[in-house]
Write a structure and sequence with these properties.
Elements lengths: L12 H9 L11 E5 L3 H11 L4 E5 L2 H11 L3 E7 L7 H11 L4 E6 L4 H10 L2 E6 L4 H46 L6 H15 L4 H13 L9 H4 L7 H8 L1 H9 L6 H8 L21 H16 L10 H10 L7 H19 L1 H8 L1 H5 L5
Parallel strand pairs: 1-2, 1-3, 3-4, 4-5
Helix pairs in contact: 1-2, 3-4, 4-5, 7-8, 7-13, 7-15, 7-16, 8-12, 11-12, 13-14, 13-15, 14-15, 15-16
The protein binds fe (ii) ion (FE2).
Fe (ii) ion binds next to loops.
Amino acid sequence: MFLTEQQISENNLEKFQNIFSDSEPEKGKEKHTVLIVDDEVNNLQLLKRTLRRKFNILVATDGKEALEIIDKEGHNISLIISDQRMPKMTGTEFLSRVAEKHPYIIKMLLTGYSDIEAMIDGVNKCQLFQYITKPYEPDEIEMIIDHGIEAYELTLSKNTLLQDLKELFFTTVKSISSALDAKDAYTHGHSHRVTLFSLILAKELNLEESFIEEIETTGLLHDIGKIGVPEAILCKAGKLTDEEYKEIQQHAPKAKKILSNIPGLTNVALWASCHHERWDGRGYPNGLSSKDIPLPSRILAIADTYDAMTSNRSYRKGLPHDVAVEEIKNCADSQFDPEVTEAFLRVEKLFREAAVNPNAYYNEYSVLNKKYKETA
Ligand SMILES: [Fe+2]
């Protein structure tokens, strides 16, 4: 039996409520929050009273009021049922605005008549889960809402799983990076600082956050190829022979070999393998020059060189900051990209401060730390 809007009135409330009260939420399971938006107060109250046993209910009588509620409570709302015909803004206008900020909230549109335009808008702009025409049967709407909540829970668990995987991946990257830094007492903390300096430069160059995130991963893994270099050569106190130097140079192509097999790290593999290329083409492993060298590798080159110059090594003491800055400045156009060098000269004081307390600065600049849980 179908109920008209008029029939779904206070007179039918009892019957309507009974249908919903059959299905109590599972014990210990938190109630989902449902927002109902309708300018017809009777309809709104009826839905509210019938659904409140099963869900936390929020109500609004127009789109503007509903948007205010979503601004405050959006992260708690699982599902929205909105009427189409309302003053101030239509249901599809309202839901399309919600879709921009809250794609995961399940959205349903109620309308008293078959409105093809609203239906098309709903599909194209609102990521509509369901279009419901009035009159509707109470048990039909309950089933629809349950399906919506199921879809919401599924998306939520999928996202949680994805987030857990990314977190796990990030922890692994950091652990590998720390293990690398620990391989040689004299380069202790090198990858960590190089990553931090690269982040400072990337931010100064106004790069996009997703790009900076990949640069951060590259910084942490840029020397991963050193895993394949014998420690006797890596930690040698004296001067390296030509053979030994060639062996060390192999860490760049080895990084590509190690990383390119990992899904999602194609860019990182390439960028890490190019961090010893030079602007004038005299670097290794491929002698790439100018903009043939990926920008992240040109950034890493300055970050890596600054850290190598200013930190102590087994065979020499680190250079003072000002000397390192002068050296990098002099190598713009030969070793380094002149634009990245300019960016470096604008933030060189920050490099000096960050080198003193890299952990504090890392938390400020890291994209990965902010995005995933702090695992450092
Ligand atoms: Fe290197």
